[in-house]
Amino acid sequence: MLDYLGLEADLTTEERMIRDEARRFVDEEIRPDIGDHFEAGTFPTELIPEMGELGFYAPTIDGYGLPGVGDRAYGVLMQELEAGDSGLRSMASVQGALVMHPIHAFGSEEQKERWLPALGTGEAVGCFGLTEPEHGSNPSGMQTRAEKDGDEYVLNGSKTWITNSPIADVAVVWGRDTSAEESPVRGFLVETDRDGVTTNEIHDKLSMRASVTGDIGLDDVRVPEEDVLPGVEGMKGPLSCLTQARYGISWGVVGAARDAFETALEYAKGRDQFGGPIARFQMQQDKLAEMATKITNGQLMAYRLAELKERGELRNQQVSMAKRHNVRMAREVSRTAREMLGGNGITTDYSPMRHLANMETVYTYEGTHDIHTLVLGADLTGIPAFE
Ligand SMILES: Cc1cc2nc3c(=O)[nH]c(=O)nc-3n(C[C@H](O)[C@H](O)[C@H](O)COP(=O)(O)OP(=O)(O)OC[C@H]3O[C@@H](n4cnc5c(N)ncnc54)[C@H](O)[C@@H]3O)c2cc1C
Known about the structure:
Butyryl-CoA Dehydrogenase, subunit A, domain 2; Butyryl-CoA Dehydrogenase, subunit A, domain 3; 7-stranded mixed beta sheet; two-stranded antiparallel ribbon
């Protein structure tokens, strides 16, 4: 596996164990069927509890049956899962960073005890509802409303492009609390079997096919007051979850790029044209050298983010830089790897085209490439250029 600057030599025994276990899981449980799942547009839902048993969901949380591993261990885990498929890493990211993380950070003790053990084992599945049909890059414009009625809230609105919504037991829904002054954004834990909740699957995706995506309809949905996340108000609630998930993406996409590179390297050494392996051509070696260098750059960024995060010094703008850089890198690397496989490269028999297609989603979700450009631009100049 490509580790040109020997970064993995610094991993602790625990981090190596997590890496090896995730690699074994991907090799045995994901690689054999992932092409079929991608073609069929399905996620291997039967693996959700096994992923829980293996500690893939929010393993950085300590307590509630969760192991409390370090941020670098979490990054390494995301990298190995995305080497299998971005759909697999998305499942773990949403469950961990976007559902369990806000419950842990902002939830009441009752909410934590009710949900964290069940989500950690994969007995329950969660989803994160922020994006709306009319509000994607600018979620603060959200129209979902929660109106207080006695000791309940009544929710109305619609969310779209929600990973896992059709298979979720609980949705973290972000909406404006119209009963409070200035209608702040609040997080609501909405069980998907409540009256008035619908979750329709979005079909016809040409990217992230091995992942379940849907919408969430909320039509006069009554939610008790105890199901509101008490510890946060305003956009910092959803945005802090996104920083956590983007940290995982910055690591994850390095895995996808590495897998595309390894596939192209092996193919180039085995594929003969003009009397010998295509790996002997300078043009193909140039592609391999470029890919290896780009991936190594991405690895360096990911490892540095982990150091900063473990010290408690990581800024969300630094995460934006790594998400933006590493996703573009993985998109470029998977396209070059696809080229090197010739005609075979466009099939599901090999991973690069699948990774390339997935990168179109990863480039867009969790803040588009453009939005992260604006985040960096504002940080560097002090002048926000969003509007
Ligand atoms: C497969 C998939 C899974 C997803 N999962 C989830 C999920 O689990 N939960 C969730 O809440 N959301 C999820 N999303 C939604 C995702 O976060 C949004 O698609 C994303 O934020 C972009 O919003 P949009 O699609 O409405 O695009 P728009 O905001 O309409 O953007 C369209 C284009 O305009 C550009 N643009 C927008 N504003 C500016 C600006 N100020 N300056 C320059 N360019 C700009 C964008 O970069 C983009 O290129 C998912 C999306 C996909 C595709």
